């Protein structure tokens, strides 16, 4: 079983629609940042879940904002969505937030769409952008609020420039878009935080694995994903060696 072009177009359509709705909610009145985050999450989640359960009723569904009843675990095809990736950034009216829609088949991130509404972009795994030349020096995106010690150590070891940024989707797509070269995260995420970004990154020809090099497996009973590395393939060796050296010292 695999995805179809209709699946890809559907994913892009609903991700873009959710992004537009989120912008409309934000512009509807003056919001307290936390209340805006909650309202946006709820509105986008309703739109995405309704679309998927209506148009793809036989598929599984996992959303950050929807209680899981476990039925997805028996499905070969499962949609994994994050209605607002970077709720804090969205609530603060920043532009580094995203909408994630992924279709995982037998645990593989086969199809993904990441919408960056305030950038006017919808990045799709079925039509990824061509990779740009490496930055010199290389650039590494890190959390703007909780940068991981491993990422900082690797950046120092390889001479990378640190670029603070908000949501996981925004950071991963910065690598896809050539604005950065490395996204290393060791603080843990959930499947909805990275399924769609990983699908787009892999399709674009990037390296995208756990820090130990193992592939991602989705639609698991436990949705926690401890770490990830999305980067240009040319830099994998240097990043891996720097990680080993940091672990040895630590």
Layout of helices and strands:
Elements (H helix, E strand, L loop, with lengths): L4 H23 L5 H23 L4 E4 L13 E9 L1 H5 L6 E8 L2 E9 L4 E4 L14 E5 L5 H10 L2 E5 L2 H9 L5 E4 L3 E2 H13 L3 E3 L14 E2 L2 E4 L4 H14 L1
Parallel strand pairs: 1-2, 6-7, 6-8
Antiparallel strand pairs: 2-3, 3-4, 4-5, 8-12, 9-11, 10-12
Helix pairs in contact: 1-2, 4-7, 5-6
Structural class of the helices, strands and pairings? Answer: alpha/beta
What portion of residues belong to β-strands?
Answer: 15-25%
Query: Multimeric state of these chains?
Result: single chain
Number of strands: 12
The best one-word shape is globular
N to C succession of SSEs:
HHEEHEEEEHEHEEHEEEH
Low-confidence stretches: none
Helix content: 25-40%
Biggest beta sheet summary: 5 strands, mixed
Mean pLDDT level: 97
Span between N and C termini?
44 Å
Major sheet: arrangement of strands: 1-2-3-4-5
Number of helices: 7
State Rg.
Answer: 17 Å
Please describe what this structure looks like.
There is one protein chain. By secondary structure, the chain is of the alpha/beta class. The chain has helices at 5-27, 33-55, 87-91, 149-158, 168-176, 191-203, 236-249, and strands at 60-63, 77-85, 98-105, 108-116, 121-124, 139-143, 161-165, 182-185, 189-190, 207-209, 224-225, 228-231. Strands 1-2-3-4-5 form a 5-stranded mixed β-sheet, sandwiched between helices. A 5-stranded mixed β-sheet has the order 7-6-8-12-10, sandwiched between helices. Strands 9-11 form a two-stranded antiparallel sheet. The chain is globular, with a radius of gyration of 17 Å.
């Amino acid at each position: 079983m695999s995805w179809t072009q209709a699946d890809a177009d559907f994913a892009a359509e609903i991700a873009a629609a959710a992004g537009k709705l989120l912008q409309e909610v934000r512009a509807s009145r003056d919001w307290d940042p936390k209340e805006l985050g909650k309202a946006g999450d709820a509105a986008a989640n309703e739109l995405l879940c309704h679309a998927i359960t209506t148009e793809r009723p036989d598929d599984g569904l996992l959303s950050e904002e929807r209680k899981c009843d476990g039925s997805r675990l028996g499905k070969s095809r499962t949609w994994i969505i994050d209605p607002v990736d970077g709720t804090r950034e969205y609530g603060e009216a920043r532009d580094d937030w995203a909408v994630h829609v992924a279709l995982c088949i037998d645990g593989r991130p086969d199809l993904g769409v990441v919408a960056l509404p305030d950038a006017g972009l919808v990045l799709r795994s079925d039509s990824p952008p061509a990779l740009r030349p490496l930055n010199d020096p290389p650039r590494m995106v890190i959390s703007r609020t909780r940068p991981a010690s491993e990422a900082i150590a690797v950046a120092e070891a390889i001479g990378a420039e640190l670029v603070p940024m908000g949501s996981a989707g925004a950071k991963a797509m910065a690598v896809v878009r050539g604005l950065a070269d490395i996204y290393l995260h060791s603080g843990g995420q959930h499947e909805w935080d990275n399924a769609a970004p990983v699908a787009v990154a892999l399709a674009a020809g990037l390296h995208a694995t756990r820090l130990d090099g193992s592939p991602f497996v989705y639609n698991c009973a436990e949705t926690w994903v401890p770490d990830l590395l999305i980067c240009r393939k040319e830099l994998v060796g240097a990043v891996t060696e720097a990680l080993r050296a940091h672990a040895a010292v630590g």
